[in-house]
Amino acid sequence: MRRQHLMFFVIFALIILVASGCVFAVALGWTVPLTQMDNFLAVTGNRLGVAVGSACLILLSFWALISASRRPREHEVVIRESGLGRIEIAASALENLIRRAAREVRDVREVKPVMHLDQDGLVVLLHMNVNPDANLPEVSQNVQEIIQEHLEKKAGVHVSQVQVLIQSVAADLRSRVD
């Protein structure tokens, strides 16, 4: 969720909390909120302000419902555009290609790719778990080369960088057949 949405939902929740608290207090017999609200709404300008504020809250409520019901759009990478149309590949498809390519390197246990586009092409950040007896620089170099080669040959995506972050060095739990 984006920060703007989060901030909106926090403010909206606080407004609902205050309004619910007042309604709860009135339901228990405390009449001060009703008296104060009646005095406040006796002034014409205050009624207009409350009406405008309420209309804004109604619109924001509809926006929140619509925004919450939408599925997030999957990120796509445009490979090329031609006279026949545009060729795109979903980020999830690229992630699957990356995982498959990384499995070709012997000591790699797990890869979690994060991708974004910059002006030079696709930037891939790999969060990797490797075996403890692995030569880390060699494994990292091999993974970088294989990932770049796979994405450029199989998906037609220009890869500008492949960054490697080794998050864990732990024993392989499953046996490998070489």
What can you see in these coordinates?
There is one protein chain. The protein has 178 residues and is an alpha+beta fold. It has 2 domains: 67 residues, no CATH class; 94 residues, Alpha-Beta Plaits. 52% of the residues lie in helices and 25% in strands. The chain contains 5 helices and 5 strands. It has a 3-stranded mixed beta sheet with strand order 3-4-5, covered by helices on one side. The chain has a two-stranded antiparallel ribbon with strand order 1-2. Strand 3 and strand 4 form a beta hairpin. Helix 4 crosses helix 5. The longest helix has 26 residues. The chain is elongated and about 75 Å long.
Assembly context of the chains? single chain
CATH level 3 topology of the largest domain: Alpha-Beta Plaits
Read across the widest sheet, the strand sequence of neighbours is: 3-4-5
Largest sheet: 3 strands, mixed
Assign the CATH superfamily of the largest domain.
Answer: Cation efflux protein, cytoplasmic domain
User: Secondary-structure element order, as H and E?
Assistant: HHHEEHEEHE
The rough form would be described as elongated
| Average pLDDT rating | 84
The total of beta strands comes to: 5
Write the layout of secondary structure elements.
Elements: H1 3-27, H2 32-41, H3 44-69, E1 76-82, E2 85-90, H4 91-102, E3 108-118, E4 121-130, H5 136-155, E5 159-169
Parallel strand pairs: 4-5
Antiparallel strand pairs: 1-2, 3-4
Describe the structure concisely.
This protein is 52% helix and 25% strand. The protein has 178 residues and is α+β, with helices and mostly antiparallel strands. Strands 3-4-5 form a three-stranded mixed beta sheet, covered by helices on one side. A two-stranded antiparallel sheet has the order 1-2.
